[in-house]
DNA sequence: TTCTTTGATGTAATCCTTTTCATAAATCAT
DNA sequence: ATGATTTATGAAAAGGATTACATCAAAGAA
């Protein structure tokens, strides 16, 4: 509507009979102003309903008090739970959280780089796949761009500070769990080809298979894309095999859930006929039928940790990257052969 | 790190041998500047790597080119899918999307009101429950605060412009579906007491029951809170009843999923032993076992519509509130008695 | 008493754009 | 060729805060 001009610091100053400098001081460093004056000013602030103009402040201070979080898909549970952790930490530090959803589209990604360059944010948290030609973090750092911390999808180009888990190790643990239950023929449903996590989890799968002395078979490595539909497709592929595996390791929970429902509909029972294990431990993994055995990633903590690292960088420190622990969560979807 | 001073418009102007006014014009209204000059300026922009300072722009233009979206819980799938719709529309309009997660906590909510007052956003989209004493929209409007559109949780205090579905009607449709299948004893698992949606859906349930000439029974209205655990608790309550209902209507899908898995573990089969119907049609509703019959809310469209309405208000128009259509999605969790 | 220090406040520069208004040059009509 | 338009550019005034520096009064030291 009518942008009905909001009160400025001048009006407060006039009403309180002081200079604008004093008003500013009352708001930011109240201790250095005389108690009597302060009360008068604060009274004037209340009376006028004054709130400071964020743009003016940020122009003068040369910082925005905001962080940009770049997400490839905000509708995805996995990411949104990380956001919770970031938000908590950011708002505790007085920072606004800006969210950019790229939908994995290049032009949108570019738009968010511009945000950073425009000074709209003091730093960025990246949940996006750096593989996706986002931008070259080392180069940007050299340009004097605000600092960036990469979360979860961490590869060689992710820049100096990252937060992740040991995906290769976790995948190894998952597959080893299946092997410990006597499974000898184990398939893997991978993530999207271009994603750095895919390679890491495939590597863990292969190592576990190799260490157990099983024969690695390429036909047991199914393609996927982290979506429900890929899980369903994996079931079709599974059923088409003449020599079916007795267990599958999925690169994420969502695909495992897609498999689960399709298998059920087709009369294949989990874990009686086939064991499955997921990755991530998303919220709904506990309420699958049967509940999903999976690798838990500490999502909220990953977000919070990354935010803390970013704050440290902004403060001029040079923190090291962090590896967070993961857990194997054993539920009902895996059983001995 | 070192905030290595970024190039300003002055440097571009100097390099191109023009005034800063011309540089600004080249960036915003290229047509009114001579082609020759324009090329020279644009060249200088590229050469310096100039990007405009968002704070300065926003100070001068008296608008922030950002929208604030207030969410009660960002980890919740239901909300995050609405965000997708908002984001698409916002970025198309050149607006930044700021997300505020209140965690349903008053101090955090207050903080976001302040954002608006600080001019950090040109308008707000509210997914929060206005019941939660957020703030009084009519009052704030009188204060000349940026415009606000409320989505989904719409009640009498939601202000002049809202986007929602007919919750009472949808609940009525859901329950009627059960009745049409011959169910005569139907329970309802409600949402959190304070939530406006709870009342609306309960009302639809009661009306359907009454219209079918069934006896309304208070013990068939179970309390809930939209969480998985509430669904599990509902199962316990269900099983404790001497005269068990043959069907349940859940105020949302998540609770239905909680019920489903607990029922399965206890040997109660859906829909053989009991039919259930959810609400929302969240992503995973299709991959439950059995797939969940539910009411589909057009989440992405709700977000997009709300964003469009907000843009209209900002542009000075006075659009009316919107009611979007819902669908009954029949899947495998409901069957004749 | 006089000089120093401390404490409280004010003055004014600065942050970087956008935009109004004025000016100068170029085009056109007559 | 002269005056009337039109077009392209520049000068300068906002826009609303923060903060280095200056000032002034009061308090303390000698």
Q: Overall 3D geometry of chain A?
A: elongated
Would you list the SSEs of chain A in sequence order as H and E? HHHHEHEHEHEEHEHEHEHEEHEE
- Which two protein chains have the largest interface (Cβ within 8 Å of the partner's Cβ), and how many residues from each? A-B, 65 and 66 residues
User: What can be said about the biggest beta sheet of chain A?
Assistant: 6 strands, parallel
The residue ranges of chain A in which pLDDT falls below 50 over 5 or more consecutive positions are: none
Assembly state of the chains shown? homodimer
Rg of Cα set of chain A = 26 Å
Strand tally of chain A is 12
* Helical stretch tally of chain A: 12
- Please state the structural category of chain A: alpha/beta
* Average of the residue pLDDT scores of chain A: 91
Q: Separation of termini of chain A?
A: 68 Å
Q: Strand percentage of chain A, roughly?
A: 5-15%
Name the strands of the widest sheet of chain A in spatial order.
2-1-3-4-5-11
Helix content of chain A: 40-55%
